[in-house]
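Weekly structure sync, notes
Attendees: PL (lead), two postdocs, one rotation student
Agenda item 3: pending single-chain targets
PL asked that the sequence for the first pending target be pasted directly into the notes so everyone works from the same version. It is reproduced below exactly as submitted, 336 residues in total.
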Amino acid sequence: MDAVNAAVARKPASVDLLVDLGTADMEGVNALISARMQSPVAVIPALADHLINAGGKRLRPLLTVASARLAGATNDACLKLAASVEFIHTATLLHDDVIDSSQLRRGKVAAHLIWGAPSSVLVGDYLFARAFELMVEAGSLRALDILAKAAGVISEGEVLQLTRAHDLNLSKDIYLEIIRAKTAELFAAAAEAGAVSAGASEEQQRAMRTYGMNLGLAFQLSDDALDYGGATEDLGKNAGDDFREGKATLPLLLAIAATGAQEAAFWERTIGRREQDESDFLRARELIRLTGAGEATLDLAAEFAEEAKAALGVMPTGDWRRALEELADFAVTRSA
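Predicted structure, written out during the meeting:
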């Protein structure tokens, strides 16, 4: 699909159906989250609450619930797994914001700027511990294995990204390897664990993992494009953060390849050496627009979204399946 056709085809999608279907379950998940982030050490619930209740979409735990219900679950076994998924996600965000020196998260001042980097890292560790407690309580060794392995893969992805930071020669394949590990793996594990908790067949478990993996890739690629095309008030973080941090995301890599020697000095200065002034982000955004790098990134996101929807073919038809199909479309068309 070329950029023009892709732009025409991208009609706004929403997660309204998924949210409506999951309302009762998510009330239970949120109650678990609230209870399990408590501690007599006051800074722990204060810092955790600052991020957890800052208005995030809760898509990953909702994905766990949706996968379980789609696979036929009639009990609440998936709720503890869903809460553990949210704790893993929150812990990684706390760690990421320290590593990246981020200023905003979900529209609020990043926790490390309020409580300090050491507290943010340690509260992230605390949430990881709570996540593993919930996994054990859920009573499924298979689900525990899935989510525990995911936590390791996510860490590997973050380290790989760190070692390749500011790399202007990063290949598309390595970049996809990074986002597959650091972002898509948790989507995949969340969906697979939900299916496992429902007693789904192995074919359905594999299908939900495939769905989650492709959904996560679509979300991250869309996020990469939004960093150069979105607005701060929509994103919940500063537009251009990836550029200012010198992250070699796909829109940037495509623009670097397209502009060649003509802009090599600009990219080397701003990304390679991170010597930037206020006008540099505007120039980078314009180069990404002119080269079609943002649209090409969304084209790839759309391909992964279609693969995600195709994976649902072995699952029962109905509202839950339709909601997950709409979620895949939303991953590409969202503005935040």
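Discussion points:
- The first helix runs from residue 3 to 9.
- Residues 12 and 333 are 5 Å apart (CA to CA).
Action: rotation student to compare against the earlier draft before next sync.
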